[in-house]
Design brief:
- It is a single chain.
- The protein contains 9 helices and 37 strands.
- It is mainly beta.
- It has a single domain, classed as Maltoporin, Chain A (Beta Barrel), CATH 2.40.170.20.
- The longest helix is centred in the N-terminal third of the chain and has 21 residues.
- The N terminus is likely disordered.
Length: 798
Amino acid sequence: MTKTLVLLLATASGLATSVTAMAQTAADDSATLASEQDIVVTGTRVAGRTRLDTSSPIDVLTGEALRGQGTAELGQALANVAPSINFPRSSAVDATDSIRPATLRGLSPDQTLVLVDGIRGHTSALLNTNGSVGRGAAAFDLNTIPTVALESVEVLRDGASAQYGSDAIAGVVNLRLRKARSGGGATISYGQYETEVSPALSSRNAHDGKTFSASVWQGIGIGSEGFLTLSADYLNRGRTSRGDIDTRFTPARVSSRFGDPEVEQYTLFANFGVPVGGAWEFYGYAGYQNRDSTGAALPRPLSNANSVPALYPNGFTPLIKVNSEDINSALGVRGELGGWSIDINGSYGRNVLTFQTRQTLNSTYGAASQLDFYSGRLTYDQWTGGVDVTRKVDLGADSSINVAFGVEGRHEGFKEEAGEPASYNRGPLGANAALGSGAQGFAGFRPVDAGSNSRNNVGAYVDLEAQFAGLTVGAAGRYEHYSDFGDNGTGKLALRYDFAPSFALRATASTGFRAPSLQQSFYSFTQSTSINGAIVDVRTFPSTSPAAVALGGKPLQPEKSTNLSVGAVVRSGGFEFTVDAYRIRVRDQLALSENLLASNAIVAPILAPFGVGGARFFVNGIRSTAKGIDVVAHYRLRTDNAGQFDLTAAGNYNEVDITDVPVATGNLAGVTLFTQQRITSLERGTPRVKGSFTTDWSRGNVGATFRASFYGNVFQPATDVANYAYTGNHTLIDLEGRVKLLKQGTLAIGANNLFDVYPDAVPAANPSNYNSGATAFPYYSPFGFNGRYLYARFSLKW
């Protein structure tokens, strides 16, 4: 870690010297550091704080920076510019291909809280249960919010449960919506992958992933001061295929659809604010997204026991279609009363996932099987209501204290609906144990899985922040009561001392928690799984179900954390430098157990009444420590002849250690609940080192962006350590050029991954991760495995 820290510090510190040498005359840009886009509302309730004045590290990423990339996905755009965020492009892991989770500081995706304009967002209905990064998590789907609707994104890299409640163990992402009374814009873009695919046994050129996107926004004035901002976004993305040749087919050919799913989605968003009664404002937002996404399961050749030659004489690859309908909405009123600022708001969010399995079969029906199936539906919804009150009290002599307190109530619901009978039944040939149950690729939810569950919680907090000349002291405490598991309390202390306008030290200490999600508590699903060459029906049981209790399951308890951080802030003219070290200890962390199989003599009698060959369920008991360092250096300068430069160097070193795991006790002693494979996934599933250097340059009507991104080695585990796959260390180069046209228009042409870099290919001799060529590259790769992407984008403002 020491060598990495020195390298990150040296790179960032050298930024100022290198860019100064480029300039003939540098303008003093210090005034721009306090511009409106740098004012933050996350992590502090003091009005007017900038991102460099806070006690906790905060990144402010502008909407323009997120939209000015060769991607239409918010999650990917954030990961491109924020080294502490990763957004893996998983494949062949069922619905997780379509609803991808992001991670912050290497922790679980559900340990980061996402706010929409300061109001708690809702998670996806999807529970990630397969072998991907984020296994076991139900997280917010960042791609439900289009970048066209955003003014900026604030990333608080610090524990904040005492301020915001559950989930904020790793930090908080606040999506701040665009607020415009006038003006508007439209953007269209087109791109595709132009790449050479070279897995273990073959090589070919690919021209796929054709992507068209279009967006438009318009600001409308309401009265003399009110606003309504409307946004619309459309995306149509073709699939990619990066598998190797499959020698089980004759002749050998690429049989898989290992890559990105095909996607078609549209999103509508409205945000408004209207003054009422003098110092008060009525505000709100509403967003709707509909996304159709189709990925693929692993191919079934004719040699597979589940193939039916009469239906698929050349074998088949099941397709998994997921339709996601997502709603984000909120209404509120805020203003001044008796010297206090008061904000009263309520919100509603819902995510509905409808599953279909296509171009497949239920082999237990033989040649009479249907080919397309309705596989069921998951729904998660959330109601919130809250009151926030703040007041800044002047104590004299450059001293003040900001007092904030509030209450929040929340109702959550999770519903699981069964698919059609043929999607899960065992048909006339069901007595053959070698045939899996239900539709191949993704079986339907069964009636026994279906159900509707809900819970309520209330919380109250106090947040104090005092300023004494150069010293800032903050303290926050929060109490929560959940109807399912009871009470929880968290606290936070923060210190900052500004030795001079150009230098400050800061530190925080806090406790945090994450309530088990309803999905983790109640999700149920039976899936046919190949284990040691045999087909086994494995069911995910709720932890309090009779089967799980007999196997050691207990009511789920909240995860808890202790966060420590210390850092420094340096700024001079157009140069900014921050460095922050942290340690996050998590206890009682939740995890999905291993498959407990009926082949074990202890497990067999427990599972016999349920008609399945294996079981798994969620358990508390993991202890982990994440420690690392974030470094960010930023330099703005203007030159007389060379134009304007905006340079950023950023890096993250993050090390996760699992120190304890759940262990079966009593009659089940000796049954493994959590293997080394899962430990490795948590410890090495994201890069320990990630860094980037970005240069934005503009002069007159032309501009360019250059970005170099380094990704450290990631491990993709397997049952046998000898079959682990590794991504290797790689650097990707992105380059974009822009020119202004028609006064208000801008044409951009660019390349992501200009030099066509791939993660290290999985060796063909690796049976666990190569899968006969179907998974030829590690799908844990933090930058994916699609290769070079070329694109053009035209934007028009009015």
